[in-house]
Amino acid sequence: MAVDKVILKAVCSTLISIVLLFAFLFGSLCLFFPSTMMRFTYDLGMDESSVKFATRAYKNSGEVYYIAYATEVSIGLGDADKIEKYGEKLLADEKFGAYCEMRNQSLPEDTTMTYEQYVYGQVCMALYEQGKKAEAVERAFELIGNTFPKNNAAAAVLLAALRAQDTETVELIKGKMLAIGNGLQGEDKTYYDAILALING
After folding, report:
1. pLDDT tens across 16-54, in order?
2. Whether residue 129 is found in the same domain as residue 99
3. What end-to-end distance do the CA atoms of the chain give, in Å?
4. Distance from the Cα of residue 9 to its chain's centroid
5. Is residue 13 part of a domain?
6. Are residues 102 and 124 in the same domain?
7. How many domains does the chain have?
8. How many CB atoms lie within 10 A of CB 54?
9. At 132, is the secondary structure helix, strand, or coil?
10. Is the pTM of this model over 0.70?
């Protein structure tokens, strides 16, 4: 019996040591290697945890890739609050333009939406879905300026407002569109006219 107790204690001690070692290793990975944990948790289907590790990696490194990753996974989750939060950080990053150029180069030739337009649209749609309708419109037109490219953020918010029969937002967008219409040319003008026709029915 005494021998059995000694063996049992040894086994228990070994198991406890193993558990503590794994806890230490896991904690170290979380603390010092958030980018590794970002991919690991994503592969396990733990998307929300993956977003947290991505934002930690971004904070540690300042690499725009990580905040873009957090934004894209949040879009996949359909979490409007996170899309707005991390998307705005992505838009504000000084390396966003260069990152977009790199991402656009890998898009298929027949793609009609650039990476920046995709992010702009998702951020503005996230604002709209949270009930920040006027803010969504203001942000959309702030992002496109005096242009009106295909699949832009303002058009995305407009289509959502039309589907929701949200006449107040539709009229707000129409007013802003009319204010920039005279200065448009080429493809911007063609797309602008098509979108304006949707409003006028």
Report:
1. 655 544 444 444 444 445 677 888 887 788 889 899 999
2. no
3. 89
4. 51
5. no
6. no
7. 2
8. 28
9. coil
10. yes
